[in-house]
Input
Amino acid sequence: MRLYPEHVTNETLDTAGLLPAEAIDALERAATSAHRHDGLFSERAANIRQSAVRDVFDVSMRPGLVSLAGGSPYLQSLPLERLAETAAAIIANEGLIALQYGGGQGMEELRKQICEVMAAEGILDAVPQNVVITAGSQSAQDVATKVFCNPGDVVLVENPTYVGALNTFEAYQVKVETVEMDDDGLVPELLGARIAALQTAGKNIKFLYTIPSFNNPSGITLAKERRQRIVEICRNANILVLEDNPYGLLRFDGAPLAPLRADHPGDVIYLGSFSKIFAPGLRIGWALVPEHLQRRYYLASESVTLCPPTLNQMLVSAYLRDYDWKGQIAIYRGLYAERCQAMLDALDEHMPDGISWTTPEGGFFVWVTLPQGVDTYPLLQKAIDAGVVFIPGAAFTPSDEPSNKLRLAFSAVPPEAITEGVRRLAPVLREAIAG
Ligand code: PMP
Output
């Protein structure tokens, strides 16, 4: 069972393109009844896990439910009317380009602008030739896995990690191995030991997938003094680093940290996205790829999508050219800082002893830890009954093993609702600890 928490918000539960409960029922019935086409599925298809969001769907229509589940950006703060005019002008004035196929690597102008976005993060040497535009960074993860991994190869991930990446890796029949984090992120000694053990056992490790800044789901950031060491450990073992950094610019506390890629251009494939700093519905992300890996990476990307969506690229390009995109990021930061604080204050006020949580310096998520032995998955239904939704920690591990953690997202819900959601959650957790 795999939860798809990224899509789950109060507003979007029934409109995000996800299936309503009756449709899931119908699919489940179809999936469990034998059909003469059953033998036609690939082994890969068998590895694609079933979504378990239906628990959440069933309650989605309930008025007053507070969803702390979905990691969606708060788009209400975008200048929507002006964006509508910009989109209309693109079609009116350049429609024959905007609605046409484009180059497989994406528009050069936008790739140039993406280099400026990366410069704002501390990557100063990126050039447009090294960038491929993808359908969100989700698709860049898929391309990386397709290009590097044979079935049975190993990918290392930090524990916990992004559910969408796990789904991608598992669909390619990759063996996902976890490395533990502490409050300062991935622990270099544990990474080194894990790599040594796996390589000694003859395993083919292809890359470390890591979210060093404001990890989804934990909110944890890899400490500055560990960043160099992590890349060196991978380089010495001849393993690539796949750095996923969609939240990096959304820091609302503490000093900015350069991405791993900044000082290690030859060892890191860097994934970026406009989903959190602008709008996820446009599905525009990118990969910054070391030169010696580009040919195959770009060809693979092209084989998936032919070209990234032209109209959306032009809209993002116009946005970066004509709007105060850094100002918008500042708005997002202020908004998420306030929401995060509301969540931390509410946790302080309402949570019983024995429960701890992370204090993120950016991003969308707080990661809550219950005492050992408490499984948060069965608590989901109880929380729903109490009028609040979270994502159980099991969703963020490769094997869905029982977890005493849970993820709370503060990005999509106003501060008062966050406070109310945490207040509703507290007795559910208190009872679980007591029981
Ligand atoms: N990586 C991480 C860590 C994410 O949290 C998400 C989305 N929630 C993605 C990648 C996917 O982003 P995109 O919309 O760019 O595909």
In short: The mean pLDDT is 92. Residues 325-350 form the longest helix (26 residues). The longest strand covers residues 175-182. The chain is about 40% helix and 15% strand.
